[in-house]
């Protein structure tokens, strides 16, 4: 496994932690109510915790993000009888899929669109169920799981004739791993940005934030496993069977990510034979998606298929893009940019 450190050129990220520094009156009320309910009726408190855990916040794209989405052609897919909103930036080359994370939306990956399109790729992005412009999932309201993410990914990908790679952010990486476990024939080139690789590790912090006691957490954890039909470890990306890991993998994660610890990315990369790990500083959980050096590194990754992915021929890239991407790769791999240094 190769490892690189990338230093951000601007100020540190202000990405929020899973547990806010300042507790709002609403959250304080929730904590008080959860503590009371947990002491009186733990099973009811666990049911409430489950509803909160699987309720995704809906976010609205910023103006710059929406402008990029508007520049693409709008698509619509049907997943479990519900509408999934998607966008395509057409081209003659193979497709790169973009997959956002929990509480996100397609526009968060907008900075990748133009560079990929300019390199000759067809680019497809979509909003997961209960996210962005897509309809509610089959669970109704804002409730959704990464299994619905995975089903949407398979549906969107099945409409493409040739998929060269995928870029997934945070929980989108979890969903991709679930799609692999379900038998999806994923592309040979995968990029994980700030992977939320071990959802069970977030339970403790979530419980603290809402005021759930240990008994409530134990009941919640067992109930979720029964409901999903799988143990929590099934969602752990590092536990994927080796049969899926012939694919090339680039993992990018920031040392100052306050939402997902860097250790999760390191575990994934260590478990994946052909993985390359890029560790950044000062970008947090989401600024990674807009950092020019990160975008350049991702394009460089797509430019150089490695021997670890024998399923790809050397001509999988659009012919007119290879010279540009080769130059980007040489620059990135040699560490010549001022922000990049080998470890």
Label this structure with key terms.
343 residues; alpha/beta; Rossmann fold; ten-stranded mixed beta sheet; 11 helices; disordered C terminus
- CATH architecture group name: 3-Layer(aba) Sandwich
Which outline best applies?
Answer: globular
What is the multimeric organization of the chains shown?
single chain
Number of strands: 10
CATH homologous superfamily - what is it? Alpha/Beta hydrolase fold, catalytic domain
- First CA to last CA: what distance? 11 Å
Q: Average pLDDT across residues?
A: 87
**Biggest β-sheet description:** 10 strands, mixed
The value of Rg in angstroms is: 20 Å
Low-confidence stretches: 8-21, 306-322, 332-343
Order of helices and strands: EHHHEEEHEHEHEHHEHEHHE
Question: The CATH topology, please?
Answer: Rossmann fold
Query: What structural class is derived from the secondary structure elements?
Result: alpha/beta
Query: Which strand-content bin applies to the residues?
Result: 15-25%
Helix content range: 25-40%
Number of domains: 1
- Lateral arrangement of strands in the main beta sheet: 2-3-5-4-6-7-8-9-1-10
Helix segment count?
11
Indicate the CATH class: Alpha Beta
